[in-house]
Amino acid sequence: MGKRILSGALIVAFTLPMLVFSSTGILNTLVALISAVCLYEALIVTKYVEAKHIMVFSLLLAVTVPFVTDLSRRGIVIWMALYAFVMFILIIVNFPKFKFQHICVVFMLSLVIPYFFSNIVFLRRFDGGGYYICLVFIGAWFSDTAALLFGMLFGRHKLCPNISPKKTVEGSIGGVVGATLGYLLFGLVVERFCGVTVNYLILVIAGALASGAAQLGDLSASVIKRTFGVKDFGKLIPGHGGMLDRFDSVLFVAPYLVAMVSFFPFLKGGIVW
Amino acid sequence: MGKRILSGALIVAFTLPMLVFSSTGILNTLVALISAVCLYEALIVTKYVEAKHIMVFSLLLAVTVPFVTDLSRRGIVIWMALYAFVMFILIIVNFPKFKFQHICVVFMLSLVIPYFFSNIVFLRRFDGGGYYICLVFIGAWFSDTAALLFGMLFGRHKLCPNISPKKTVEGSIGGVVGATLGYLLFGLVVERFCGVTVNYLILVIAGALASGAAQLGDLSASVIKRTFGVKDFGKLIPGHGGMLDRFDSVLFVAPYLVAMVSFFPFLKGGIVW
Known about the structure:
273 residues, two-stranded antiparallel ribbon
């Protein structure tokens, strides 16, 4: 437990600069760094990286995507196409040594991880962008923590024993409660102290749904780990496994929140950090 | 050979409306249709569609992406994320029946095919957009046809016997010559009759590289067919196999051309159809 608290503090120390410098290239850089580390861990787990240059090109994609998303629509699509071109060239040149199916797994992870995380960069464009970026982490980590606590205290009914035997329905409900309370609390604080106008109804709904996205991220990561027979994505963060073990929820909350805010901007008139 | 000419005429009759109505929603609609048919063929070949709804959601992605690319940058990324969310939910709910690796193959094809084709929609935004759309098809089909002819006449050295035993180095060179001549011819015609200013140096280079993209598309399709032990993607077009057998080169020339035109707009001041 002490280890968990220590590593939690480490993570906060890492994500805090993302919030403080959200309007600068530091945000892109940190998102690029997280994307690359998480992708590296995921690819290692698959054991499908049959040659070093697959890893090199995939990591190149991961570190550039958070900057490319600041470019045009066609820039985003072309970047993806360029990566696909390289992967197809590698398959063709190394046929039949590199398996098409394996490269597809590499391709999926290399696209999902950096493009999902890049949504954090999109959020800063909204009025009140810095606050929305906070809500990515609040949604993910309040959900995770509350699910853990509720599961330990009240957990009785297994959620999906095939994928993640420790998860319970009670924990899952706890996650929803936790994220909703976290959003509400954040709304109260920023309204009182930062002069932000908050739409509480949408904020509460967004919090509940954020927990849904967070839990989907968590279960998706579990499916990958279960498929490849590993317990964690690495040992980078003491007590938390790899970076991706800790950021799997964030990974899924970020795109969810961009979609949500596009339709319902629930924080208005805030100072954008 | 008669069948081939007939089906060639059919394809022209299909693609001509894309050029004539390139500034309207008809272009998006036709690109959506081609994407969906090609994706359907590819997914059937993989045999990885373990339930109908995987196919339904993938085809939904294919028909919507050519419209979504007209939206914002975050619209493009969110659409991809939404599809990934659905796929992960399907994997989780059907674990371990649906294999993660299989869904990754579905994911790669479902992204590559519609997002690649959607570059045709991007091209119309350029000054002289209609002409560039022509060049996608000229690049692909002059390369294909010349490669076939050169291969039949002079083919001696196998290009990649593991993947596509009939392809020769001579055919490949012929493809480059054919596409380059096609581009040059097109440049001469539009400069003379349509009052377009043409940069011939870039046009020639673009033609040669377009053949490279076309051949990469052709070989990539072959790798997929070889991996799953089929000869063609279907029987839709008499003498040509499936739609994807005929459009594999177009698929790769489209994103290549958007990248090329972004840096070197080699046709200028034309009337955009």
